[in-house]
Amino acid sequence: MRYPFVRPKFYLRLIKDITGFIVKPQYVTIRDISVRNKIYETLGLFLVKIVFSLLVANILAIFYEPKNITDAHMSERFTPLALLLVGGAILPLYEEVCFRLSLKFKPIYVGFTSAGLTYYIVTKAIYRTNLSLVDESFAARIIWSLLLGLLLYALTYRKKFAKSLSVYWKKNIRFIYYLSCILFAWLHIFNFELTRTNVLLLPIITLPQLFSASIAGYTRLSFGFRYPLFVHMGTNLLFISLTFLPLD
User: Fold this and answer.
1) Which of these, 44, 73, 181, 227, could form a disulfide with 219 (CB 3.0-4.6 Å)?
2) 184 and 99 Cβ atoms separated by less than 8 Å
3) CA distance 174 to 226
4) Which pLDDT tens digit goes with each residue over 79-108?
5) For 28, phi and psi rounded to 5 degrees?
6) Are 103 and 227 spatial neighbours (Cβ–Cβ below 8 Å)?
7) 53, 97, 238, 200: which is closest to 192 by C-alpha?
8) Helices then strands (H, E): number in the chain?
């Protein structure tokens, strides 16, 4: 596969693959493909994702453009270098652990994912603060998350239970994949003001995140965890870097 990025057939095949996967998700990791080709596939999906996200965002902006308060708060609180580190590396790693790591079942994955999701929900829904904000509630948020993560890890680590869950995961990967995509997309509502309009338009204004989650879930299940992580980091780093460009 030499220089696939200049071949339209490459992108048409990628779109066909991801569409087929969304219709019928598969649990099996693709092993008969080289690391180089996995990287090609991942980069190709990254480009498809960027084009689709920009297209949808610009179409939505014609009719309605909600303000992303999370991005605004992070820009105010962090220096450019810290923003690149937090928004381009730490948060993507955190979100991939929350929403993609446990698409493949392992007790330790369940522990990490449940801890991460607990931290997300407690932070956003209960304390109504920013994930990266270290304030008086930070210790409580961390403790609750670690306790639940350790508890679920201890429960799922039992041999018979782990074996049953592994079988369940494989048989129900379609439901688990769809759930992870919807959760990832719809929890991004907390990036915007919780107005009636934003809540009613939730499925529409989070379409870019839903598409991103679909691609990330595909790459995680097909190639492994590090591939959607690199795509997520690359996307965030790209868009954060664009905000540093002078507008005048």
Assistant:
1) 227
2) yes
3) 21
4) 889 889 999 999 999 999 999 999 999 999
5) -75, 130
6) no
7) 200
8) 13, 0
